[in-house]
Structures are given as structure tokens and as C-alpha cells.
Amino acid sequence: MYGGTCITIACVPTKALVYQAEHPDRRLGEAAWFEQAAAKKTALAEAMRARNFEMFDSPETSTVITGRARFAGPHTLLVTDAGADRAAG
User: Fold this and answer.
1) Is the torsion defined by CA of 80, 74, 53, 43 positive or negative?
2) How many structural domains is the chain composed of?
3) Which of 3, 46, 50, 87 has its CA 20 to 30 A from that of 9?
């Protein structure tokens, strides 16, 4: 996910849910309201992560590699990308 803690699980989701709680759609029952609030929170976080990906992947000087990373040395990062290892350093 391209957004870190704030966009993924902290600031943005919390504030989105607080906003929804402060501005409820009174036409909905409680269960429907909660589903709608959760969907709006998820859509907002997904849109922000997509925008972050575009910003990271667009400069000529960077390449985004999606996968799991670990340090293989003091200046080398090993990324497992769909079963293949790629080293960057």
C-alpha cells in the first residue's frame, strides 16, 4: 500500500469515520449507516493510496517495485516481487 500508516489505518480512516458520525444520513438505519460510512472511508483511503502510487512512480529517477522488502546489507534492499528476488542498492 502506498500511503503509510496515516492513510492506511490511522489519521485518514479515523477522521473519515468521525466526519460520518458527525454528519449521519438520518434516512438510513444504523447498520446501513455503518456500512455506508465504512465504504466511504475505504474509498477515500484507496483513492489517496492510488494518488501516492502515481506520485512515487512518475518521476524519471524512481521505480516502484511492489513486493516484500528486507535489508540484505547496509546499502542493499532485497525485494521479493511475485516470487522473484530483485536487489536494489
Assistant:
1) positive
2) 2
3) 87
In this structure, are 49 and 83 located in the same domain?
A: no
> For 8-64, what is each residue's pLDDT tens digit?
889 999 999 999 999 988 888 889 999 999 999 999 999 999 998 888 887 777 778
pTM: 0.70
Alpha-carbon distance values, 19 to 12, 14, 28, 38, 40 (Å): 10, 9, 16, 11, 11
Within this chain, do residues 69 and 45 fall inside the same structural domain, yes or no? Answer: no
For 3, which DSSP code? S
For residue 1, the SS3 value is coil
SS3 22: helix
Query: Which residues are CB-contacts of 3 (< 8 A; sequence separation ≥ 6)?
Result: 45, 48, 49, 52
